[in-house]
Every structure is written in structure tokens, then in C-alpha cells.
Amino acid sequence: MNEPQRVVVTGIGVLSSIGNGVEEFTSALREGRCGAGPITSFDTTGFLRTFGHEVDGFRPEQWIHRLPVEQLGRATQFAVAAARMAVQDAGLDEQELAGLRAQITVGTTDGEAAELDKMMAESVAKGPEHPADQLVAGRLPSHQLALAIARELRLPRAVPAVLGTACAAGNYAIGDGFDAVRSGEADIAVVGGADAICRRTFAGFSRLGLVSSDFCRPFDADREGLLTAEGAGVLVLETLESARHRGARIYAELLGYGLNCDAHHPTAPDQASVARCMELALADAGVKANEVDLVSAHGTGTPTNDITETRAIREVFGDNPPRTVALKAMLGHSMGAASALGAAASALALAHGFVPPTVNHRTTDPQCQIDCVPNHSVPADLRVVVNNGLAFGGNNASVVLGRHDEELVR
Amino acid sequence: MSAVAIDEAKVREIVADCLDLEVEELTLTDHFIDHYGADSLNAIEVLARLEKEFHVTIPQEELANMVNLSAVLEVLSRANAR
């Protein structure tokens, strides 16, 4: 067994309600933009709540050149587009890519459920004897989210995988790519998460009483809940050696990750298990709790999550925990993409030296004793960031990223 | 006040079904969580099924009050018809 390799993030692709592409996303994080608005992707008539976070200005043909766009569902289009952005951002051309052993792992909550919604609506309207639209049916399989990336980017030696670990799926996928690269199984990893907004999940969260009437306000005393969202975040991972050899720009080093699943409750997070997940990630990263400068929280803005997660953070980091921000105030809850967008934001925060804010904030809940960096980003000399993803069923995943500094001896 | 006619047998049937119980096992006063091992998701299912069956709107805040069959009937009696 070879010595594990150091792994770095050299490319980022992003689609989100606050901006598409790494540059726009970075300025939106700095400005504290909020991407909430009335949902337009489906009819919200009859629902008590009507707000969500949608990706604007997405033109799939701008990013998808080889595959027929109409054969791909919206979530798959997001995954492929973000992957194309990420490899371009990493400065990898197609010839270089073709020779590489690539791990492609995409996390998702809903896969192409929005397409399934459409199919069902048509079936209800036209009757069950009406044949299903073959084109739409062909978009449904979730393996497309990764397979389509391999096909579009022409990666003949890629291993595609899709993970359905709900709202922590993006971090699971990043962990998978990290293992593939650090062990030497893959030369690069193209990993992250993608989800398209869909009526099914919106209806489910609405019925659970977890959807906010206006904006998502994590850690706020008057928070009402989350807003469902869509988006994609994809990272290119490679070894430090390979990045140096190529002269690639390095956003951050991926230091470690942790996963656990407690199956304690269908929806409620378990404090001890969330704390344990962060500890597993820190141990994998070889980082002590007091070396962490920022936590990018799961921070959904629901009453239960924010209290439980804050307590878990205080359990791990003590009475003086690092700043803890919830990007979902800006991005909404983009499900499987959420923690991948969180990891992308963490890498950008490390590279550019700032803390993105928790926006829409009024008064911090006394039960959430953390500095959530309300409303305005702050410049900060960050070294280590922990990024959390906590999912239904007690599926937790934390990723640890560190600033890359050629002079810094670790 | 609501003008909804409440069929108690129907309510009992819905609650028993959501809690995975036989109708005769369900008493008026035994606690859903402590006695029958239900959880908050079962309660949401009860709320949703009652809303559909009786064409009423039950505010989400009432979930906490729906601790046993008697309380469910009370909540239903003050729910607004749609």
C-alpha cells in the first residue's frame, strides 16, 4: 500500500440561485446575496408557502456540447454543466482528460424526480392507457447524473457513481473522490452534487411544516424553516503532486472527511451523532478542534436542526466555537447539491480570505450560541474549514478543507 | 366555529391506521407516543389524512396538542372548514 497522497481542489463548477460559475458565485458569497423568490418551475397553487430558490439564466447548450440536451433531465444537465465548468476552471483540456483515470461521483436527493412529476401529471391528465413519453422516461435513471458527465467529457477510463444519501450526498461524493485520489486509484476526481427543484420534495417539506413563509433565517430566534432549492456544485480533485506538475491554481487542500449514520429518527438530527461525525472528519484530517477557523453548517433554518447542530458544534469545539455560517440563507436548501456548494464556498473562502455571511438574520436565537456572521461577509485569515451535511435518517457527512500555502509546512 | 360534522368512528379508523393499530386497540386517552410508540411523523400523517377526509385546515401548531384520540377529536372540532 502506497503512502496516501495529499489531495487538492483545482477546479470548481457551480450553478446556484445566487449565481452560476465560480466568479459570480464568489462575488455573491461576498455580497451576501439571497436567491429566494416565488417558485416558477411548477404551480404552487394550493400550497401555504410559495417561495424557493431557483437557478436563473441556465442555458444547458452553453456547457453541454456532445450529448443531446433534450435527452437529459434538469438535474443531469446541472451535473454535466457544473462538471464542464469545473474541468475548464481546472485548466484541463480534453486531450489531457482523455488519458486520465477519473472518479466521477455525484450526490443527489431527488435525481430526476421533477421529470417523474411531469410524467405523472401527464398520466393523470391523459389516463393510464396513454403511453408514457419515451423521451422523458429515458431521462429518469439516476445513474445518468454521473454517466452523462463521463460521456460528455469523453472520459473513457472513468468510474461513474451516483450516491443517494439525501441532503448530505454532496459531501459523501466528495469523500468518495478524495479516497479514490489519495489512494492512487484515480488520477482525478470530478465530484459533487446536483438537484433540480421539484414539487414532490417541496410538498413533502411543506407537509412537515418545515418551509418558511418568506426567507430562510438560520440561527434566528424567529426562524420558520427552510426554502427548497436547486443547484449543483462540482469539484475537481487531484493530488498535490499532479497540481504542482501542471502548474494548476490550487483553491484549497482537502484534508479529510467523516461519515456516519445513526438511523435514530426519520427527520430529526441526533446531537451526539452529528458531533461524532465532525470528530471523525477532524481525525481523518489530522486536525485538532482548536485549529478550525470556520464551520460551514448544515444550517437549514428549521427550529430543530439549528439548535441540535449548534449544540453538537459546542460539544466538539467547546465553549468558544469557531464562527459558524449557514449558506442556506443565501442558497436555499439545494438538497444533494447543498454540501457540495458548501464545500465549494469553503474552498473559495480559504482561497480568498473571507467568511461568507448568514444572511436574512435579525436576532440570534439564545439557544444557538454561535457567531453566525450575520448579514455581512468579513475578511478573515482562514486556515481550516469544516463543512457539514446532515441528512434525514441520521446520515451525516463532514468534510475538512485547509488553506493551501506553498510556504506553509504542515 | 366549524360547521364540520365529525364522524368519530372514521377519525378512530384513520388514527388507528396511521399508528398501525387495530381499531379496538385505540383508546380515547392513551398517549400516542408514550403508549403506542408513535412519532411526530405519524402525527403529521394523522393531520394530513383528517384534513383530506373532513375538508378542513388544521394549523401545524396543533400537532403538539394531538396527543391522544380525545385530543384529536377536540382539535378537529375547532378546525376551520375549507
Automatic annotation (TrEMBL), chain A:
GO BP terms, alphabetized: fatty acid biosynthetic process
Gene encoding the protein: fabF
InterPro entries assigned to the protein according to its UniProt record, in alphabetical order: Beta-ketoacyl_synthase (IPR000794), Ketoacyl_synth_C (IPR014031), Ketoacyl_synth_N (IPR014030), PKS_Beta-ketoAc_synthase_dom (IPR020841), Thiolase-like (IPR016039)
Tagged with keyword Amino-acid biosynthesis: no
Domain Ketosynthase family 3 (KS3): 4-403
Gene3D superfamilies attached to this UniProt entry: 3.40.47.10
Pfam families in the cross-refs: ketoacyl-synt, Ketoacyl-synt_C
Protein name: 3-oxoacyl-ACP synthase
Family: Belongs to the thiolase-like superfamily. Beta-ketoacyl-ACP synthases family.
TrEMBL record, chain B:
Transmembrane segments: none
Domain Carrier span(s) in chain numbering: 5-80
Database matches in Gene3D superfamilies: ACP-like (1.10.1200.10)
Keyword Phosphoprotein recorded: yes
The keyword NAD is assigned to this record: no
Database matches in InterPro entries: ACP-like_sf, PP-bd_ACP, Ppantetheine_attach_site
Pfam families per record: PP-binding
Keyword line: Phosphopantetheine, Phosphoprotein
Name of the protein described by the UniProt record: Polyketide-8 synthase acyl carrier protein
Organism, as annotated: Kitasatospora aureofaciens
